[in-house]
């Protein structure tokens, strides 16, 4: 076993041969953060006293959900056979929504630790990321974690991993991030197995941005991997995609606290601070060079993050609209993939149409808005981007059902994704049923080890964004894991279903659905609203319609009694207060034509709470 | 008196009223409500301020009349100190609880105290509530001799199954007996009914109405059952043992009551009250709806004098302690500003058959009246003559009408 390195190598003067750049590929709760904590402790970069659980995950949500949203890089010293090395651990985001960011993190490494929970085995997202790592020619070190758990079955899952990677189950290292068992051995393996970086030290500087984080004290902190050449402090740098030139205010490495250095040499990993205030000026995947001696060619693989999933976000209290705008503006500083524009809705008032990379991204952003900014929000059902061609051959891009053109439609195309579902083999039938009901086409099915199966489908993205994952989880007792990646577009027979209250369209409930499912959607929503909207003084018809054609209908009968029989022995105060309360309640009502609808009814209808409530009764 | 006391300012310990209460007092009638907070058993639907002997925690039923008289003496002092003119009570109402659980002599002592300290006007209406099984002819005779003019029997229903659900202990056969006794004593008779009890059918309700009408009472009250939180009834409904009363059925029952009572010659004068002729309307009841002054004596009783509302501590033991120390039993009070007074006036006067004068309303509310007429909630002819009077449909939706009027 290696001891801690007594003196760390200095950044900017570390030969590439002494550098190892690696990342950890793992599923959400397979213990990546705990293992990273242990490495920080064992290499001595974080004192035992300062050790905070999951040191690298800084945001509360990350800590609570046990997932990493923003990757970071930590430089750790390690001694092996008397020689000192600098190990750069790049902490990749773990979820499919961030595939692009994952691929950039991987491109910054020469090797990856494939970390798998010894009690659960590999999951679909890990498989997807492993695939990406192999595409990037990374050296893979397979590791089973949590071997201290009573439920651990390392032999079984070592076999599974060996089956995937080739080689022997004995090559799979067994560790416990919790107890630290096997972690020193793992660090040794990183030195021995992962190749040192190669690159031209004398070429013009090319550094790849693999992460960009907004910090309210320091502005944007950009994490880079030097591919060629070097950068030194007080140099002017240039972003190759925009040609924008920035003064370099600070350069250094994370250890894991920021540590200023003279510069970064070829193969090294570190951070840059330029004083820009918006991560959009420092985009993941972009190449940084110097303005004095710029490189001629950018590093390959840069793309702009493109939103895939859209949802309307509205404050429950309309007065919070300016706060929501401010909060989104702030989040945007640290999230280059977030974009939004103002939107109004009859039912929900003023809000924003927000584009997300995927469902988790949506969930994380709404949660951060609610938690960090104290907002109460309602999100409309997620939707995707449709290309609608009208009969006069004009193409309209629709990210919101309200943009769906009226009149005759020539064709509608929708995004499709390739979906991978990993689950125990007993659930194959039920998963197939679900995927087929969501217009999925089976591409293939493979056994992973003896009892687990990977099912691959192509499916319309629109079928996944709504509640597919919830259904998948509940039908498989939570055992199934899901991964998806974009796979182009397809034409489909899609229609817009509108919901009308007393003849007035309620925009928040319009949906673009497959023609065959239009009726089911109409029945579902009209019934939900019937159960949620309080009776009015008149009968209220609720209809679902495609264009002018009504496909489903319900009605709320008129209210006949709204009077308190008595005033209790002269307690007028009580009666008046009750009236004042009702009056306050009326203020929170949204008017759809003449119909008063409590905001809660809209919210419940959007979230689908009604069915569950009915079951409880 | 039901439920928790309202949140408001604490009442001053001496109970003194601001001088403002005297403004316009000559034009306002004065009455006395006297609460008797005792029952033999607590009915399952009731959340009124009443106590069975096991719930009294040391307060004594036997001492109650003396304590109430203590508050009556205080009342005379406080009203005088506020500069109010001497206004003999035009109405007195003994409610509960079960006032008739006390000996008749106790009720008489309390009434005498009201006469002595506050005064009682000639021709005053003096009512007591009574349980059909807690009075007899002799009892009623004694009340009549002391000056009582009216008795209101808690009949509730003529159907034994419905009475059982309500936990009412009386035998429906007692009703004709006590009504005859009251008549013999020269008392006006009112019968109180409840509709919409879980399990009660429209036929049950018709039976109760017809039985009540057959007794030819001077006055009938019919209250929709309200399931109050914290009652045994609410628990039984929550547990699924009983079905919650349906608003639609209660609406049908109200319409049936209005139809049968109307056919028998009774007219409504307040949403839940009908009288055989205008002279039999309960003037005390009306005083609540018309902004009159009244002093409420007893635990949990509410009072209103000249724009100040207050209410007493609820528990008889706390009440007894305060009154015997010569302190005011008032617990909280609120002083109404002009805006609140107008809201109350709209809220209260729209419920009565004489209606609300349209000219008290602001411009927006006056605009809203047209919509109320169009929706069949307000009588259009009366509106043209300057008054808001509810239609039958409007009575059932009275709270909605009020919300539209106060915007």
UniProtKB/TrEMBL annotation, chain A:
GTP binds at residues 29-34, 145-148. NCBIfam families: lepA, small_GTP. InterPro entries: EF-4, EFG_III/V, EFG_V-like, G_TR_CS, LepA_C_sf, LepA_CTD, LepA_IV, P-loop_NTPase. Residues 17-198 form the Tr-type G domain. This is Elongation factor 4. One of its GO terms (molecular function) is translation elongation factor activity. It comes from Labedella endophytica. Signal peptide: none annotated. One of its GO terms (cellular component) is plasma membrane. Its main location: membrane. GO terms for biological process: positive regulation of translation. It is an enzyme of class 3 (hydrolase). It comes from the Bacteria. HAMAP family: LepA (MF_00071). The lineage of its organism: Bacteria, Bacillati, Actinomycetota, Actinomycetes, Micrococcales. Keywords: Cell membrane, Elongation factor, GTP-binding, Hydrolase, Membrane, Nucleotide-binding, Protein biosynthesis. Belongs to the TRAFAC class translation factor GTPase superfamily. Classic translation factor GTPase family. LepA subfamily. Belongs to the GTP-binding elongation factor family. LepA subfamily. It is a peripheral membrane protein. It is found in: Cell membrane.
UniProtKB/TrEMBL annotation, chain B:
Pfam families: Radical_SAM. GO terms for biological process: porphyrin-containing compound biosynthetic process. It comes from the Bacteria. One of its GO terms (cellular component) is cytoplasm. One of its GO terms (molecular function) is coproporphyrinogen oxidase activity. It is found in: Cytoplasm. Residues 24-267 form the Radical SAM core domain. Keywords: 4Fe-4S, Chaperone, Cytoplasm, Heme, Iron, Iron-sulfur, Metal-binding, S-adenosyl-L-methionine. SMART domains: Elp3 (SM00729). InterPro entries: Aldolase_TIM (IPR013785), Coproporphyrinogen-III_oxidase (IPR034505), Elp3/MiaA/NifB-like_rSAM (IPR006638), HemW-like (IPR004559), rSAM (IPR007197), rSAM_sf (IPR058240). Belongs to the anaerobic coproporphyrinogen-III oxidase family. HemW subfamily. Probably acts as a heme chaperone, transferring heme to an unknown acceptor. Binds one molecule of heme per monomer, possibly covalently. Binds 1 [4Fe-4S] cluster. The cluster is coordinated with 3 cysteines and an exchangeable S-adenosyl-L-methionine. This is Heme chaperone HemW. It comes from Labedella endophytica.
């Amino acid at each position: 076993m290696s001891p801690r390195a007594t003196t760390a190598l200095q950044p900017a003067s570390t030969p590439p041969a002494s550098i190892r750049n690696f990342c950890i590929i793992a599923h959400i709760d397979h213990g990546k953060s705990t293992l990273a904590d242990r490495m920080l402790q064992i290499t001595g970069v974080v004192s035992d006293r300062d050790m905070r659980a999951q040191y690298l995950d800084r945001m509360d949500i990350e800590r609570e959900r046990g997932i990493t949203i923003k990757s970071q890089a930590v430089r750790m010293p390690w001694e092996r056979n008397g020689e000192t090395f600098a190990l750069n651990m790049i902490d990749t985001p773990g979820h499919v929504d961030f595939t692009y960011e994952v691929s950039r993190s991987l491109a910054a490494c020469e090797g990856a630790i494939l970390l798998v929970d010894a009690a659960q085995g590999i999951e679909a997202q890990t498989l997807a990321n492993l695939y990406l790592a192999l595409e990037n020619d990374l050296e893979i070190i397979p590791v089973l974690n949590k071997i201290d758990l009573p439920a651990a079955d390392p032999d079984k899952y070592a076999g599974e991993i060996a089956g995937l990677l080739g080689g022997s189950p004995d090559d799979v290292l067994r560790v416990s991030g919790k107890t630290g068992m096997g972690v020193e051995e793992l660090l040794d393996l990183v030195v021995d197995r992962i190749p040192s970086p190669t690159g031209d030290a004398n070429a013009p500087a090319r550094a790849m941005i693999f992460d960009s984080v907004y910090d309210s004290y320091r502005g944007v902190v950009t994490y880079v991997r030097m591919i060629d050449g070097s950068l030194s402090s007080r140099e002017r740098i240039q972003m190759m995609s925009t040609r924008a030139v920035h003064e370099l205010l600070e350069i250094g490495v994370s250890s894991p606290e920021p540590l200023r250095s003279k510069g970064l040499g070829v193969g090294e990993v570190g951070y840059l601070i330029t004083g820009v205030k918006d991560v959009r000026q420092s985009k993941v995947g972009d190449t940084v060079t110097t303005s004095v001696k710029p490189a001629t060619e950018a590093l390959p693989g840069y793309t702009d993050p493109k939103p895939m999933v859209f949802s309307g976000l509205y404050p429950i209290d309309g007065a919070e609209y300016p706060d929501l705008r401010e909060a989104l503006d702030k989040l945007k500083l640290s999230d280059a993939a977030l974009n939004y524009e103002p939107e109004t809705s009859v039912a929900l008032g003023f809000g924003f149409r927000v584009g997300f990379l995927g469902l988790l991204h949506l969930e994380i952003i709404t949660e951060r808005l609610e938690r960090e900014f104290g907002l109460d929000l309602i999100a409309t059902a997620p939707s995707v981007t449709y290309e609608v061609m009208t009969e006069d051959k004009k193409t309209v891009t629709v990210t919101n059902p309200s943009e769906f053109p009226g009149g005759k439609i020539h064709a509608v195309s929708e995004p499709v994704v390739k979906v991978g579902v990993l689950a125990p083999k007993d659930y194959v039938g039920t998963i197939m049923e679900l995927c087929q009901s969501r217009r999925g086409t089976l591409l293939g099915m493979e056994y992973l080890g003896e009892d687990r199966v990977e099912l691959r489908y192509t499916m319309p993205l629109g079928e996944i964004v709504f509640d597919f994952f919830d259904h998948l989880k509940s039908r498989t007792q939570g055992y199934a894991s899901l991964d998806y990646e974009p796979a182009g577009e397809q034409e489909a027979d899609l229609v817009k279903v509108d919901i009308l209250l007393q003849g007035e369209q309620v925009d928040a409930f319009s949906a673009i659905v497959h023609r065959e499912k239009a009726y089911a959607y109409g029945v579902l929503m009209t019934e939900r609203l019937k159960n949620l909207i309080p009776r009015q003084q008149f009968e209220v018809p609720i209809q679902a319609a495609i264009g002018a054609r009504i496909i489903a209908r319900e009605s709320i009968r008129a209210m006949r009694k709204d009077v308190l029989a008595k005033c209790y022995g002269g307690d007028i105060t009580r009666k008046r207060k009750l009236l004042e309360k009702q009056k306050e309640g009326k203020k929170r009502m949204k008017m759809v034509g003449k119909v008063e609808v409590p905001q809660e009814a809209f919210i419940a209808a959007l979230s689908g709470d009604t069915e569950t409530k009915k079951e409880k009764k | 008196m039901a439920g928790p006391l309202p949140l408001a300012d604490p009442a001053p310990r001496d109970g003194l009223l601001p001088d403002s209460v005297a403004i316009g007092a000559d034009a306002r009638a004065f009455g006395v409500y006297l609460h008797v907070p005792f029952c033999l058993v607590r009915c399952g639907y009731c959340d009124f301020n009443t106590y069975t002997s096991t719930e009294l925690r040391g307060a004594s039923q036997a001492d109650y009349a003396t304590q109430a008289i203590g508050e009556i003496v205080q009342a005379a002092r406080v009203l005088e100190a506020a500069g109010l003119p001497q206004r003999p009570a035009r109405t007195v109402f003994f409610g509960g609880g079960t006032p008739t659980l006390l000996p008749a002599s106790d009720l008489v002592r309390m009434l005498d105290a009201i006469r002595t300290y506050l005064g009682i006007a000639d021709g005053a209406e003096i009512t007591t509530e009574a349980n059909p099984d807690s009075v007899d002819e002799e009892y009623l005779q004694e009340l009549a001799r002391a000056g009582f003019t009216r008795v209101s029997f808690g009949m509730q229903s003529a159907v034994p199954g419905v009475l059982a659900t309500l936990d009412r202990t009386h035998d429906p056969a007692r009703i004709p007996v006590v009504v005859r006794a009251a008549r013999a004593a020269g008392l006006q008779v009112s019968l109180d009914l409840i509709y919409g009890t879980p399990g009660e059918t429209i036929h049950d309700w018709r039976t109760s109405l017809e039985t009540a009408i057959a007794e030819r009472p001077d006055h009938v009250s019919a209250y929709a059952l309200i399931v109050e939180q914290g009652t045994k009834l609410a628990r039984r409904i929550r547990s699924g043992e009983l079905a919650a009363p349906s608003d639609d059925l209660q609406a049908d029952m109200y319409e049936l009551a209005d139809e049968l009572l109307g056919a028998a010659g009774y007219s409504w004068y307040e949403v839940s009250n009908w009288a055989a002729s205008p002279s039999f309307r309960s003037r005390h009841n009306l005083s609540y709806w018309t902004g009159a002054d009244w002093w409420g004596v007893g635990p949990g009783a509410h009072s209103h004098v000249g724009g100040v509302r207050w209410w007493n501590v609820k528990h008889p033991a706390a009440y007894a302690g305060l009154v015997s120390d010569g302190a005011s039993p008032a617990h909280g009070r609120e002083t109404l500003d002009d805006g609140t007074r107008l809201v109350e006036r709209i809220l209260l006067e729209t419920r009565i058959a004489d209606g609300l004068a349209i000219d008290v309303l602001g411009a927006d509310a006056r605009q809203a009246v047209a919509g109320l007429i169009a929706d069949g909630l307000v009588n259009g002819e009366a509106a043209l003559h300057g008054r808001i009077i509810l239609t039958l449909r409007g009575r059932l939706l009275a709270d909605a009408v009020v919300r539209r009027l106060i915007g």
